[in-house]
Amino acid sequence: MPLKRYQAWPKDQPFLFPPSPQDWLADDHLVYFVLDVVEMLDLGRIEDVIHAKDSRGQRPYNPRMMVGLLIYAYCTGVFSSRAIARATWEQVAFRVLTGGQHPHHTSINAFRKEHLAAFRDLFKQVLRLCMEAGLVKLGHVALDGTKVQASASRHKAMSYGYMKRLEAKLEAEIKSLLARAKAQDAEDDARLGEGQDDVDVPAELRRREDRLKKLREAKAALEAEAKEARAQRERELAVGCDQRAAEAEEERQGKLNETLATRHREAAEALSNHDDDDDPPFVTPDGLLQHRPKARVDGTPKDKAQRNFTDPDSRIMVSGGAFLQGYNAQAAADDAFQVVVAASVTNQPPDAGLLPPMLRLAVENLGTPPTALSADTGFWTVEVEESSRALGTEAYVALKRSKHHESQTQPTEGDPPANADARARMDHRLRTPEGAALYRRRKSTIEPVFGQVKEVRGFRRFSLRGLAAVSAEWDLVCLTHNMLKLFRYGREGLATG
């Protein structure tokens, strides 16, 4: 029986005519869609930065190519600048997008860092395209946060108490090495001749001195941060005293609170260099609360207050029962097609107090408030209802965690009692048929967003460092999430819009 013959394998066959890149991929490939969308984006902010530089020297890469490269890379789960640069050589879609150009990984990383401020604007532009394609209905928006690993190890974090102990230890070691160096110099001069070294004590001394210098810098930064945190706490106590003074029924009680408010303000002024005209401390540009180090009354850090040497803005957080050095990445998604309508990052681990600024950011991005917003119990504060209604949105925030298969609470109808407080009103709203049905959609709206970002595309670690940089990178991640939604569901609407 004759042997089976194989098809020819022309692996060494040269092209007789130059191939067209358009023939290498299917017409409906994602890379062509990304190229089409990038042509629609306004890159004026990026181009202004480029044109402000000296016109001499090497020509920069086309900003549309670089933006398209980053967007396509993040869409396909390639986040490292080295991996992106390698893909321009090894993957057909990346070669098509770059037109055969191969930016070095340093150029890709420099472009990403240099234009961080532009990513928020690009996120808004892609969100508007999603709205034009009918992917955002502005009915129900779900909010949640997820912990993302920083570009730093938690083993590079150090508590203030350990800093003090290590500082004393290094000072003692340096003192011992200096004495040893002096004795060694005398011994070497006598044994080897003047100026000849046998043991390199100075090298070991320099190593410890460098370590001590870095430790003192981190310790001083943590002390300054803790002092400002305590000052901010004194300001908040002063505001509380003012409120109690205004509400006091007895004159004596009112004057006592006025005196306490004055003392708290004086304490804040003594601790802080912050001017009242400046932006409030421990608040991100988007208005999200930031982590405050634990501080004593005198402004010194408590021994458990920590600082990371690699990324000082990151904090140790709990995710899935494990500790990680990371950030709290927030996202709000419209329940029609899970399009992200607001995205931001903070280094505060809990979600409490983050709902009002995230809702304000969503309204700013959308130009109009959604009808309703749902969030889990971590977002509950007594201010949620009032602040949401002031923006034109009804909030549905859980008051406790429900166990799996736990029986539902007794449903309710009508309006809550006239004397009900904020918690009772929220409980009543969640137990109405409409509220219960709406809150049930929360998980199926926002949880798949994080699943697609972290599990499908594999984004589990920021590539950049610092709160401002990771916030911009999170904008890029959410931008590409929306881009994929537009690719799958909104191309026809976009084409006819």
Can you describe this structure in just a few lines?
The protein is of the alpha/beta class. It has helices spanning 30-40, 44-51, 63-75, 81-90, 92-98, 105-114, 116-132, 160-191, 201-247, 251-271, 355-366, 384-390, 422-431, 433-456, 467-489, 491-496; strands spanning 140-149, 157-159, 306-308, 315-319, 322-334, 340-346, 372-375, 394-397.
Secondary-structure map with pairings?
Blueprint: H1 30-40, H2 44-51, H3 63-75, H4 81-90, H5 92-98, H6 105-114, H7 116-132, E1 140-149, E2 157-159, H8 160-191, H9 201-247, H10 251-271, E3 306-308, E4 315-319, E5 322-334, E6 340-346, H11 355-366, E7 372-375, H12 384-390, E8 394-397, H13 422-431, H14 433-456, H15 467-489, H16 491-496
Parallel strand pairs: 1-7, 7-8
Antiparallel strand pairs: 1-5, 2-3, 4-5, 5-6
Helix pairs in contact: 1-3, 3-15, 4-5, 4-6, 7-15, 8-9, 9-10
Explain the overall architecture.
This protein has 16 helices and eight strands. With 497 residues, it is α/β, with parallel strands linked by helices. Strand 4 and strand 5 form a beta hairpin.
